[in-house]
What we know:
Elements: E1 3-14, E2 17-21, H1 22-34, E3 39-45, E4 53-57, E5 64-68, E6 84-88, H2 97-103, E7 108-112, H3 116-125, H4 131-154, E8 157-161, H5 163-169, E9 176-179, H6 192-204, E10 208-213, H7 225-234, E11 239-244, H8 250-259, E12 266-270, H9 274-285, E13 288-291, H10 301-307, E14 312-315, H11 318-327, E15 330-333, H12 338-350, H13 352-367, H14 371-386
Parallel strand pairs: 1-3, 1-6, 3-5, 6-7, 7-8, 8-9, 10-11, 10-13, 11-12, 13-14, 14-15
Antiparallel strand pairs: 1-2, 2-4
Helix pairs in contact: 3-4, 6-13, 7-12, 10-13
Amino acid sequence: MRLTVVAPAPAHAGENGWWLDTKFLVGMEHYVRAWPGPVTAVLAEAQAKPPFATFVRSDDLPFAVSTFTPGLKLAVERIPADGLVLCGGDEAEFVHLSAACAERGQPVILVLEYTLETRLRIAWLDQDRGVLRKLRTTQWSMAFERRRKAAIRRAAGLQCNAYPTFDTYGHLNPQTMMYLDNRITEDLLVRPEEQAARAARLAAGGPLTLVYSGRLERLKGAQDLVPVAAGLAARGVDFVLHVFGPGSLSDEIRSEAVRHGLSERVILRGTVDFAKDLVPFVRSSADLFLSCHRQSDPSCTYLETLGCGVPVIGYANRMWARLQGQSNGGWTVPMGETGRVADLIAELDRDRPALVSASAAARAFAARHLFGAEFAQRIAHMRQIAGC
């Protein structure tokens, strides 16, 4: 039986091949290995080579590729009429497909990552939008939400990435499953000797090593990193904060660190390779991950950080609040209260056994939710619905 994956990932036609988003390509390769039949990807046509893309010759691609024009409703005729369709449920171009495919007897599984609450929070945190534009976005989002709920009810199945979408939409479809998306495989999971070295380093009483990784944008709360760092310095905490990732706030963070006399304590590391650079650094050097994320989207950074044996201190958005409660792998602080974050880190600096205990809990939880286990659950759910 064929599997067709419909996604907003970009695809740019090159000479005798395709430029494809690298992370999406890796995911598709997993589908090809696990699915008992041919696999097709229906992707957004890109006019130029996408960032973070890999070129693959058509003869070497293990799946077929077709494209659609982004921003336009995807015609059901562009979807192969045989087999199962796995389709993004957050995109307006796709949600009609659960009914359209059902009418021709073809099952569709929708995949959800964002709740309406998260969509609206993203819109209203965007400082580049005026109030009228935000109000129009809110109105559109409310109308789209009604369409999306109808599509969820009509779909053959629903896969929810993490707690917020599962809690919000899981009751709408009897064939719903939840998974925790992440990139931590067995070989990337923190090793016992690294945990022991971290515990010894903490016991020795040296500076705390804090880490942030992600896009340096206001939507991600990156503007709160230096205020937290300044609060720590004011409380006499000896620390270094390593900041990984690109974004429009890079220069602002750097200049604010200089203004507060923190240029040697707040270090911008730029973009690095996840598996080769970021994971080894976090596993071997970090004591605590600082998350100022205000949205409730299913950021895989949380679970990936826990998999490195590093506890997280973060704002109590719906995602991290639930994950923290399930894992005991960190702490929550009320949204936007940078002073409370600094207070708690200062307490943990004085109570380092608490950091060691949270590190062990973090690893234990992540070990139960490695990529392979989460992906296998998704495939089993898909095969059960497809009957293959």
